[in-house]
Amino acid sequence: MEHQAHAKLGAGPTAVFECLQRIPCNPCADACPRGAITVKEINDCPTLDVDRCNGCGICMTHCPGLSIFVVDLQYSPEAALVKIPYEFSPLPVQDEQVDALNRQGDYVGDARVIRVQKSSNKTHIIWLAVPKELAMEVRNLRLRKEPFHD
Ligand code: SF4
Ligand code: SF4
Asked: Which residue among 35, 60, 103, 139 is least crowded, i.e. fewest CB within 10 A of its CB?
């Protein structure tokens, strides 16, 4: 299955769009404060100006399809950063070890939660450190335990 409609990465954290359903939608473009997203036709997948994108993730919290991720391949010598849109409860907590899942929901490796970025709407952003080779595979997470989450 083709899954990366737009996966050209910039030097740092960069938005990745995996929005392939041809439905009329463009709140991501309206939400980007840097004007980095263009939706030429309302049914098309957005295109990104990678030079304008700083990976802030604001667009992620406005995407009803949970179709936007942010990837930073240069996060550290060993790990890439993948920001995941997340609407489940409980939320993970910082430094928690979680299962890294691919697009099909299959376990592909281990991930560490770097940050839990709560949003004012229901779509929160979970920052995961993952092995670099999994940066374009990890698109979801699974908690291993649920002890003390809020
Ligand atoms: S991550 Fe930030 S800068 Fe990049 S496209 Fe999304 S809203 Fe715009
Ligand atoms: S908001 Fe999400 S689903 Fe809608 S066009 Fe943007 S990336 Fe696609």
From this structure: 35
